[in-house]
Amino acid sequence: MHRISTLALFASLIAISASDAAETKSQVPDFAKIQPILESYCYDCHGYGSDEGGVTLDHLETMTPQERESAQKTWLAVWRNLRAQTMPPADEKQPTQEESEMVGRWIESQVFKLDPAKPDPGRVTIRRLNRDEYRYTIEDLFGYRFNVNESFPPDDTGYGFDTIGDVLSISPLMTEKYFDAAQEIVKAVVLVDKKPEWKYKRIFMDGPPPEDAEQQKAYARKILKHYGSKAFRRPIDEGTLDRLVAIQQHISSLEGQSFEYSVAQAMAAMLISPQFLFRAEIQPEPNNPGEIVPIDQYSLASRLSYFLWCSLPDDELTKLAAEGKLRENLHAQVDRMLDDPKSERFTTRFVGQWLQAQDVEAISIDARRALGVKDLGDANRVFSRTVRQAMRKETEMLFEYILKEDRPATELLTADYTFLNKPLAKFYGLEEIKGLEDGKLKKVTLPKDSKRGGILTQGTFLVVSSNPTRTSPVKRGLFVLDNILGTPPPPAPPNVPALEAIRQRGKKLTMREQMELHRSEALCNSCHSRMDPLGLALEKYSYIGQYRDSDDGQPIETSGKLMTGEKFSDVQQLSQVLASERKIDFYRCLTEKLLTFALGRGLEYYDTPTVDSIVDQMQSNDGKLRQMLHTLVDSAPFQKRRGDGSLLSSAE
């Protein structure tokens, strides 16, 4: 299917008019130099009368405008496969690096119409605070831990993350829940009885209100201006402040209502304001896709704080934004924020969604078969909640250590150390490691012959990429393609037989033999040839993450070869391949995941120069993860924005 998409791309490229080519810069090859490359690597199967896969390149002139538009949607994915060397297939004649780069430059300039000197920052949908952002914003605003899990439904996700503006919609039911939440919060944080005094003065910073009515009004205005500016992440405008004060004055005038209660109700109104619930940014020409502007400094402070702290900007960020000095102090602020304990929120949320670490504690697993026991209670005491929590923390702490110590990102794959406590070490069979505690995890150096090291051998990955009662080479291989290499296959075609149905054809087949039978189905082969070698390399780890040498008494073979030709004998060698020969793919995938998480949108073709720039920087500094975040916050998509609309259509 990827070959078909590639050919659809090439078909579209040929259909581009000659007038476009004439306008290109001299360093960009014209189509006369591209066509011989296509003839060398595509036409043998898809031209001159051949139509492998139902695709021919002989009738490209008949392609309709609608077909060309449809093909545009696949260009980014196809182009990624070309750069990742998954096209043409490894067993076919391969283009030279110069030829691949030539085609790539032509696609970028003539199809995507990209200018690396002027990267497009893209558009961002106005974003509602998700559950975690709401919780941490309330906590940092008032010092109150509001239980969002009981009050709000789970957020929808897009592109693997819950930060995506296009899916963070708001329903009438959600609006009602925000009303209820606002009342619960102000009841807890705005004290009426003035005790305890320290908590009372958190809101009423000057103590009890004065007796004079005008002085009370000025005091209320001071309180609402202070908290309104913090809650709205920028100075509150006078009109909004007047309305909040009017609410306070009206309620205060009612018989039996105190000053404190009236302030609380004005604050409740603040908490249901769109200026609080949504992260909006000022755009001078919101409907003009050609108008690119830097975001204002308050918006930059919010982008940074919600990226690294999942919450509103603190006083230092706000002060720098007010002085117009945040951009010139941006890198110092990034370092300060990463060193702050609140950055643990970023680690937990990003790793939890990128590597699905947040799922390991709740995913349904029946450990009896893996442990060889019949009683479910006995199995759950071994594969316990304590072990699952430690698995999650192991993955989070590895990422956090590499980030804070500015280690190479490839250590996520190849680290010769990990983070363990006694229960997890026992579960992994690493009892020889001494000095561990029952609860807190600590960094340990792994034995030289250890079967652990890197995220592909951690319990988190091994569990979330398995089925409830067995391993799944397909899920594990897909996970690596999607989250490590950034080259996911297309969705499975309909009516593909399940592995269990394939298994019935033979007796006591190994997992590798079962997958070979499954791959023999014509519909399955193209994608499984990419996924299966990756997944089968991990077969010596059970579906609960324990190491084993055999499955049902049969030896396990883990050797394989990537679609790009690199060979490996086990998961340790696979991890080394991913961190060396394929490290550019890993850099690019990690960059795209972090950008998606930070920007709140999926990446598009026009983000290519930004991704390339970050990857180039990673190559020049040994892939240091902390430096990579600095490069990301310097990028055009993080610092700028444009109006809605298609740049391709506006360019035409």
List the helices and strands and how they pair.
Layout: H1 2-15, H2 18-22, H3 31-41, H4 43-46, H5 65-83, H6 97-111, E1 127-128, H7 131-142, H8 148-151, H9 172-189, H10 197-203, H11 213-231, H12 238-253, H13 259-271, H14 274-277, E2 278-279, E3 292-294, H15 297-308, H16 315-322, H17 330-339, H18 344-354, H19 368-371, H20 376-382, H21 385-404, H22 411-414, E4 417-420, H23 422-428, E5 442-445, H24 459-464, H25 473-485, H26 499-503, H27 511-519, H28 522-536, E6 550-551, E7 554-555, E8 560-561, E9 567-568, H29 571-579, H30 583-599, H31 608-620, H32 625-634, H33 636-639, E10 640-642, H34 647-651
Antiparallel strand pairs: 1-2, 3-10, 4-5, 6-7, 8-9
Helix pairs in contact: 1-5, 5-6, 9-13, 11-12, 11-13, 12-13, 15-16, 18-21, 25-28, 25-30, 27-28, 30-31, 31-32
Please give a structural write-up:
With about 650 residues, this protein is mainly alpha-helical. About 55% of the residues lie in helices and about 5% in strands. It contains 34 helices and ten strands. The strands form five sheets. The chain has a two-stranded antiparallel sheet with strand order 1-2. The protein has a two-stranded antiparallel ribbon with strand order 3-10. Strand 8 (about 560) and strand 9 form a beta hairpin. Helix 25 (about 475-485) packs across helix 28 and helix 31 packs antiparallel against helix 32. It is globular.
